[in-house]
């Protein structure tokens, strides 16, 4: 995938001189170098200013960020570079480089063309830059992305492609000359036919069109006679007024004069085809589809039966002979020349649609014209007969007719279009008959006519080989002016045919040549870029289309129509341009550039003392202002409207071009912009002026709109409140999306208001919108709204609002997105606010919350801080006489002392808490407090046995007396767990049985499973193995099926392993033990737990080896155990039963480690 351009100096350096390389070495170097360059780097940079200097580092960093984002979107990038005929290799965002490659010569040719035309940078701008860039950069000229490519690398890739595709290199040396003006004959010359000019030495010849030295002929006008014909290029020398295309440029005055004359010529009647008028400039649409509809339909003739040699023929043939007579060109002739044989049959009536019958009739007419010496009539009849014969594939007969038309004696050819038709048709026959010598000789003459008289290009509509011959010869001769002329004619030809895609490469090359010095102008550049943009749009190439439109609009030759048409192309391609990125862009911001450029032309239309096109100017300004307003650039929107008002929307007496309703609409829009820009007072002034200029009893819709704007100016705050209320109502109704929109609009309106009276409402709306965002899990947005509300409340020193915002933030960081540090900060701020407010009760509760937050941090320093806050809250609760809060504060202080290891104070604080709780006389509260006191010891690592006293002796009797079933279940479970850890298994059985009974009564299956499991564990530890097996099986029977979580499966594995161990080691039943081990192994295999599978396979291998004496199964489980041991790096597996039996004591000491299901 490589490409290259081989330049002449490069080749000469390789094959000439003392250090020249042999041919095979030259080939080796080209191939080797090309394969070393697999990709072409494109260097991107943000530039600015007329000199296109690199922008600051911040802008370059933005570009790097855009490229980094682009790396992740391969579909968009691939589609983009496919449009540019390149293949993406990689993107290096750090270096601002994109690497591309090419597979065919066509790809690299197109890519190089786009680079030369400046499209690459503009396409990258459309791809990478945001919408706001186009608006913000309007004041900065020449800001954009510049693409630079290493020419040497590109040349190497060109060479590689050429070598792979086998293209040969041909050098054609010729004078690089192309001239206009006049020349002088150097020798005497007798014309070889009526199409040539006879010359005498020293004759002055005016060059018609272009004299291109690489062609043998050119079209000239003899100055002394006025005759027009072909002149051999080698027979003349330049006169003093001859201008060579390679000798430099015209000065500004000459260019302007030439442009004026060309425009005058182009404005002449397009239906008329002049015989010898030179048209050096034009457009692709000239004489295209529109011209086909305006051409005359042509005459119609009736074919009468005639006989050769009779005298009655003359009367019957007279209308035809008269029509075809005359030396000058007529428009009807052009229609006749362009007709195909089928259309010629329709032109002549009275025959049976038989070409032979029409040929016979025209043959008799030709013979009659020859006898009467009607030379022009005979020539045209020969042309028609030749076309009919060629249409019947009688090429030899057609050749005779065409050659006769050229050989008929006459003074000269003034109907140059007929001459071109004869040449082209004869050239086609030479090509069919493979008479290449005559074909190329005739092609030289056709080239002279086409280069001189562009209208002759219509004669080659059916066969463009002649134009391609001209183009090839111009390229080989390095004659850029001739090449541009040929490209223009080929593009125009394909355009007329409707082959728009085929016209693209020729139009691209024409525009490239027109930009190179000296300027080659066959078409106005702005028009050429616009036409190219239309072709790109039809070919679904949106980036190239928009780039062409921009070049057309910004070119110095652009006109108002070009700017408007370019804007139309951008709007047509918006969906395709931004659909790749799935952006919703109704009106792209690029349109601002076209609107601004169009407005500059409407300013030029004003003239001196004139009104100009005020309607168009107002429409463009309104569009530009609305675009600014939509993007949030209100200052620019207001400025553009002020400019319009100052220039065109003055009093009615001073501007008659803009009607009163239009002026009022512009002023109303200006008033609305001032409202949006938080300038209601300016809007009121504008609206007052509008009302003053309107009639007294005006009842138009505009008056109603003005009244509404007055209301908005006076009651902007009420509008914000209405939006907020509407949003809150939508929240109540469940319309969350609509509520968010109204609340957001209310926030925008409140943020524009200036005054302390609106701040409370503003804070309320912010808090509600923040809470809505939190409920929708938009946590960052919710946090921003809460913090915004807090800042406004602090600024306005509104205490209640500060408290509301702070509480929302405390809840956010405490319950929604946990962040202890932030939660502590906002709670301490809330504490300070409550202290200022003097609310002691809430202050104590906040102190409790802060203490809990510090405890959750888990450090000793945090615990000491928590103790300080607890003691502060304790003091407040004592002062307030809130006994329940006071009791819990004493208990919390004792708990913290327990964490700090100061056990000597724990009993004191717990006892005080118990005394305060008992003083309340509330049984339910006392029960909760006693259980919490037991939890202080239960959850600690020291003196855990003290919890038994609180649970069993104090709390449980109260729970039984008050029939608090949930409390009994909770206390029983805690007692079972505590007594298990204290190894008081016998005492624990009573409470485990009680927990089971309560769970069965409540119907709580999870607690029932926990109770069964604990009973099984206790009986196992007490040596009652049958009961232990029974309760383990009861536990398994209560497990849900199917299993949902891996933890449940692991529980199965461990219980079945425990049952197997009980049956094997304790009840000495290897057969039943093997069954439990098999069940455990199945669960372990389902879970994929290799460690459990190793243990179970080892036990099964040992049982089958030593007790059940099944060697095959023993070997099977032993091999599986070895495989798991290898995976787990276990070195040795011993199947000796003595060792396993001797491990009973160790096993029994570890039975308690069997995991239990989660306790509720």
UniProtKB/TrEMBL annotation:
The keyword Disulfide bond does not apply. SMART domains: SH3, TPR. PROSITE patterns: SH3, TPR. Pfam families: SH3_1, TPR_12. This is SH3 domain and tetratricopeptide repeats 1. Residues 178-241 form the SH3 domain. Keywords: SH3 domain, Signal, TPR repeat. Residues 1-17 form the signal peptide. Coiled coil: none annotated. The keyword Transcription regulation does not apply. TPR repeats lie at residues 1009-1042.
């Amino acid at each position: 995938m490589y490409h290259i351009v081989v330049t002449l100096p490069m080749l000469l350096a390789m094959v000439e001189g003392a250090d020249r390389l042999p041919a095979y070495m030259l080939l080796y170097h080209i191939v080797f170098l090309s394969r070393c360059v697999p990709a072409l780097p494109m260097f991107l940079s943000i530039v600015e200013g007329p000199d296109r200097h690199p922008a600051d580092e911040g802008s370059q960093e933005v570009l790097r960020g855009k490229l980094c984002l682009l790396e992740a979107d391969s579909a968009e990038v691939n589609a983009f570079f496919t449009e540019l005929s390149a293949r993406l290799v990689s993107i290096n965002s750090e270096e601002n480089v994109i690497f591309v490659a090419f597979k065919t010569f066509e790809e690299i040719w197109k890519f190089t063309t786009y680079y030369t035309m400046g499209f690459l940078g503009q396409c990258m701008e459309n791809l990478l830059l945001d919408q706001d860039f186009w608006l913000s950069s309007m004041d900065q000229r020449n800001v954009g992305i510049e693409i630079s490519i290493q020419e040497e690398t590109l040349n190497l890739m060109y060479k590689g492609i050429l070598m792979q595709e086998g293209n040969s290199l041909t050098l054609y040396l010729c004078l690089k000359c192309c001239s206009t003006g006049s020349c002088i004959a150097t020798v005497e010359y007798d014309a070889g036919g009526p199409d040539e000019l006879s010359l005498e030495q020293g004759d002055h010849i005016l060059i018609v069109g272009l004299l291109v030295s690489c062609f043998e002929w050119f079209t000239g006008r003899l100055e002394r006679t006025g005759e027009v014909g072909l002149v051999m290029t080698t027979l003349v020398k330049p006169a003093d007024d001859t201008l060579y295309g390679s000798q430099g440029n015209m000065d500004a005055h000459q260019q302007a004069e030439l442009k004026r004359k060309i425009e005058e010529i182009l404005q002449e009647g397009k239906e008329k085809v002049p015989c010898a008028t030179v048209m050096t400039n034009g457009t692709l649409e000239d004489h295209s589809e529109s011209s086909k509809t305006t051409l005359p339909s042509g005459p119609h003739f009736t074919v009468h039966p005639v006989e050769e040699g009779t005298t009655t023929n003359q009367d019957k043939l007279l209308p035809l002979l008269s029509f075809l007579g005359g030396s000058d060109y007529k428009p009807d002739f052009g229609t006749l020349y362009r007709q195909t044989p089928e259309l010629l049959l329709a032109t002549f009536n009275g025959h049976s649609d038989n070409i032979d019958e029409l040929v016979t009739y025209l043959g008799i007419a030709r013979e009659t014209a020859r006898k009467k010496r009607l030379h022009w009539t005979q020539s045209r009849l020969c042309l028609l007969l030749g076309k009919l014969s060629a249409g019947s594939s009688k090429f030899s007969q057609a050749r005779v007719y065409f050659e006769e038309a050229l050989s008929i004696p006459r003074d000269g050819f003034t109907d140059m279009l007929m001459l071109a038709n004869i040449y082209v048709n004869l050239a086609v026959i030479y090509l069919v008959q493979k008479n290449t010598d005559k074909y190329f000789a005739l092609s030289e003459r056709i080239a002279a006519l086409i280069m001189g008289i562009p209208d002759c290009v219509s004669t080659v509509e059916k066969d463009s080989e002649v134009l391609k011959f001209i183009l090839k010869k111009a390229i080989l001769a390095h004659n850029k002016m001739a090449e541009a002329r040929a490209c223009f004619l080929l593009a125009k030809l394909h355009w007329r045919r409707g082959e728009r895609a085929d016209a693209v490469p020729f139009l691209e090359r024409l525009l490239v040549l027109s930009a190179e010095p000296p300027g080659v102008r066959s078409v106005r550049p702005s028009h050429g870029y616009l036409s190219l943009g239309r072709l790109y749009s039809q070919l679904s190439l949106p980036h190239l289309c928009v780039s062409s439109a921009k070049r057309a609009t910004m070119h110095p030759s652009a006109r108002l129509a070009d700017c408007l048409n370019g804007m139309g192309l951008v709007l047509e391609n918006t969906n395709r341009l931004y659909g790749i990125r799935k952006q919703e862009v109704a009106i792209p911001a690029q349109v601002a550039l076209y609107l601004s450029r169009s407005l500059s032309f409407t300013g030029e239309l004003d003239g001196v003392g004139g009104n100009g096109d005020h309607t168009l100017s107002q429409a463009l300004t309104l569009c530009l202002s609305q675009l600014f307003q939509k993007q949030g650039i209100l200052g620019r929107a207001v400025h553009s409207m002020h400019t319009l008002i100052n220039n065109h929307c003055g009093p009615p007496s001073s501007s008659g071009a803009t009607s009163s309703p239009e002026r009022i609409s512009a002023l109303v829009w200006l008033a609305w912009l001032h409202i949006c820009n938080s300038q209601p007072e300016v809007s009121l002034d504008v609206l007052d002026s509008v009302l003053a200029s309107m009639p007294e009893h005006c009842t138009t819709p505009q008056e109603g709109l003005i009244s509404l704007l007055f209301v908005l100016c006076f009651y902007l705050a009420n509008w914000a409140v209405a939006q907020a209320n509407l949003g809150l109502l939508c929240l109540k109704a469940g319309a969350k999306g609509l509520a968010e929109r109204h609340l957001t609009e209310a926030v925008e309106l409140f943020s524009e208001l200036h005054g302390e009276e609106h701040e409370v409402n503003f804070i309320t709306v912010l808090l509600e919108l923040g809470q809505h965002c939190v409920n929708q899990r938009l946590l960052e947005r919710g946090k921003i709204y809460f913090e915004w509300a807090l800042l406004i409340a602090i600024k306005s020193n509104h205490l209640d609002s500060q408290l509301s915002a702070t509480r929302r933030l405390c809840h956010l960081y405490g319950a929604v997105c946990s962040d202890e540090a932030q939660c502590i900060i906002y709670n301490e701020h809330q504490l300070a606010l409550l202290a200022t407010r003097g609310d002691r009760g809430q202050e104590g509760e906040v102190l409790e919350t802060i203490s809990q937050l510090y405890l959750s941090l888990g450090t000793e320093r945090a615990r000491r801080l928590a103790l300080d806050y607890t003691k502060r809250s304790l003091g407040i609760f004592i002062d307030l006489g809130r006994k329940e809060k006071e009791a819990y504060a004493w208990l919390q202080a004792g708990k913290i002392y327990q964490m700090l290891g100061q056990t000597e104070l724990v009993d004191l604080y717990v006892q005080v808490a118990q005394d305060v709780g008992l003083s309340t006389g509330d049984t339910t509260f006392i029960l909760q407090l006693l259980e919490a006191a037991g939890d202080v010891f239960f959850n600690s690592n020291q003196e855990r046995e003290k919890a038994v006293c609180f649970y069993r002796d104090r709390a449980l009797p109260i729970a039984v007396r008050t029939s608090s079933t949930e409390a009994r279940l909770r206390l029983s479970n805690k007692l079972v767990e505590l007594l298990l850890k204290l190894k008081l298994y016998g005492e624990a059985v009573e409470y485990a049985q009680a927990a089971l009974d309560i769970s069965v009564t409540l119907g709580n299956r999870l607690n029932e499973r926990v109770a069964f499991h604990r009973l099984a564990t206790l009986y196992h530890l007490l040596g009652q193995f049958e009961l232990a097996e029974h309760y383990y099986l009861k536990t398994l029977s209560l497990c849900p099926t199917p299993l949902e979580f891996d933890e449940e499966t692991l529980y199965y594995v461990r219980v079945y392993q425990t049952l197997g161990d009980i049956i094997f080691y304790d009840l000495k039943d290897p057969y039943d033990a093997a069954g439990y081990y098999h069940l455990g192994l199945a669960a372990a295999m389902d879970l994929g737990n290799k460690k459990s599978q190793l243990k179970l396979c080892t036990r099964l291998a040992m049982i089958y080896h030593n007790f059940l004496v099944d060697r095959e199964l023993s070997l099977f489980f032993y091999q599986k155990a070895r495989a798991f041991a290898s995976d787990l790096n276990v070195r040795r597996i011993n199947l000796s039963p003595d060792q396993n039996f001797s491990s009973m004591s160790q096993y029994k000491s570890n039975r308690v480690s069997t995991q239990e299901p989660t306790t509720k």
